[in-house]
């Protein structure tokens, strides 16, 4: 092919590619240019578009039936608010990674690890900690059962164990199944909940003292599977008047 022809062909190719890239670029950026809102948004700093809440902000939490307003950063966990800001130290900080269950609390009746929950996300929800389970001097039935069945030793994990056990009872009442439930169409009821079911449903809460037998017995007692001890009977009679 003559050199003039090759030169002309090369020029045409470059011209074609340039025109194609220009057209493609126009097609991509045209919506942004034509949309004044998008153009204005593009002028804003990136941090303003993705972090609408900067610094500390007031958060109102309903805890144990009382309203508490705290000013915190959005990244603060519910556990740290409970312990460091509201002095509700019954909820324990164990691993702080959602692995031990010591920080378990109830939110709208369901259990959560408060070390993994942002406090700012709990607005409008009902939070219950171990401090909110008693009625005056009257213990919650699960608390009384833990005492009567020696469901603890050092006691560090006990608040989380008790909250998890209460959530377990709520789940059984709702007909919730677990990983070991054999028939998902007929979840076990309170009187038929097996020891394996109880252990599975409480497997997210660890006890380094290994007081698991007492914990399971306490749950069984509250489920009505075993008669309470004489001391527990007296306690219940005193509680009910």
Short description:
This protein has helices at 3-34, 36-42, 46-50, 78-85, 141-148, 158-173, 195-201, 212-223, 230-240, and strands at 57-63, 66-72, 104-107, 110-113, 126-128. The chain is an alpha+beta fold and 241 residues long.
Q: Can you tell me about this structure?
A:
It is a single chain. The chain has 241 residues and is an alpha+beta fold. It has helices spanning 3-34, 36-42, 46-50, 78-85, 141-148, 158-173, 195-201, 212-223, 230-240; strands at residues 57-63, 66-72, 104-107, 110-113, 126-128. The chain has a five-stranded mixed sheet, with helices on both faces. The longest helix has 32 residues, at 3-34.
Labels describing this entry:
alpha+beta, DNA polymerase, domain 1, five-stranded mixed beta sheet, 9 helices, 44% helix
């Amino acid at each position: 092919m003559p050199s003039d022809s090759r030169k002309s062909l090369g020029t045409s190719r470059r011209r074609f590619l340039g025109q194609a890239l220009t057209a493609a670029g126009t097609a991509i950026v045209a919506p942004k240019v034509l949309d004044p809102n998008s153009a204005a948004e593009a002028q804003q700093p990136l941090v303003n578009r993705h972090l609408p809440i900067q610094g500390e902000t007031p958060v109102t939490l309903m805890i144990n039936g009382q309203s508490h307003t705290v000013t915190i950063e959005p990244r603060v966990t519910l556990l740290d608010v409970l312990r460091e800001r509201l002095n509700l130290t019954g909820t324990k900080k164990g691993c702080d990674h959602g692995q031990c269950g010591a920080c378990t609390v109830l939110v709208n009746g369901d259990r959560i690890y408060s070390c993994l929950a942002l406090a700012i996300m709990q607005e409008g929800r009902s939070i219950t900690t171990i401090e909110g389970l008693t009625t005056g001097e009257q213990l919650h039935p699960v608390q009384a059962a833990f005492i009567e069945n020696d469901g603890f030793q050092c006691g560090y994990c006990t608040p989380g164990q008790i909250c998890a056990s209460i959530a377990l009872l709520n789940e059984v009442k709702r007909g919730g199944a677990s990983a070991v439930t054999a028939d998902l169409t007929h979840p076990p009821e309170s009187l038929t909940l097996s020891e394996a079911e109880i252990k599975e449903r409480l497997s997210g809460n660890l006890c380094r003292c290994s007081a698991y037998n007492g914990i399971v017995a306490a749950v069984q007692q509250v489920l009505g599977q075993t008669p309470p001890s004489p001391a527990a009977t007296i306690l219940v009679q005193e509680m009910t008047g």
